[in-house]
Here is the input.
Amino acid sequence: MKALHRSNKSQAKPDRKGLHPRNLHNQGYDFPALVKSHPALAPHVKPNAHGELSIDFADPLAVKTLNAALLNRYYNIVGWDIPEGALCPPIPGRADYIHYMADLLGLEERSIKLLDIGTGANGIYPLLACQIYGWQCVGSDINTQSLENVATIIANNPTLKDRFTLRTQHDKNHIFEGIIQAGELFDVSVCNPPFHASLDEALKGNQLKLNNLARSRGVQRESTKSPTLNFGGQGAELWCKGGEQLFLKKLIKESQVYSAQCRWFTSLVSKADNVKPAMKLIRKLGAVDSREIEMKQGNKITRVLAWTFI
Here is the structure.
């Protein structure tokens, strides 16, 4: 299958979202086109307070259906679905990560192998990397039910069969060990680490997100006694002991052990305060190059840390 890579020259219009120049979502969502390609989205599309077509981003089903529509229309992925409560990733931001990794590795390189640490039930990074650039991908996770769901998505899309494989992490104390095999080489590893230290912290963070969404739509929203996660997420997807900071420390330390088997190790970092200590540890362990990549979507800034020992 031909990869869906778009060059910078194909971006005729200036972007509105601040996304990577090759990101197909720079002009926002074309809801009529999305509904046409994925009719299940139709009931969720309504004019917002500004009179523009949108969905209720506080509604988990609406968000999930929008994702399925985007993946269908722009990336030729059919039958994408996730179990109730699973993490539902915003597609434009996830595509940005992959585009920046392509820049990091060099667009002239065609035979790229990517490892996704904690691929979850959505498998989003390998799915996008396979469809945009035609890369070979491995998705790993500790949750076998999540991997079973991704296996179903792969089965629904035969072109992915030979390019996207799954591996189970059997030891919660390890990240790369048990996943990277002897003699195996990867060009890049990606990761969206759990950024909360507990379920309670995750729920409080989501409540704040919902309130911000409501304010942007010009409506009042009261805090609920039993808050839900509009973008989902459960267990290891959203929280771990010590939160993002401890997970990053573990990821960086173990990357040194596999320094000869992966050209670039990378990870999203959601909390700005975690960047400095992570960079300090990366340099201490002998990385020969390290970078902080900023990704922008509207007013939101997300950071990717990248480091290499090669």
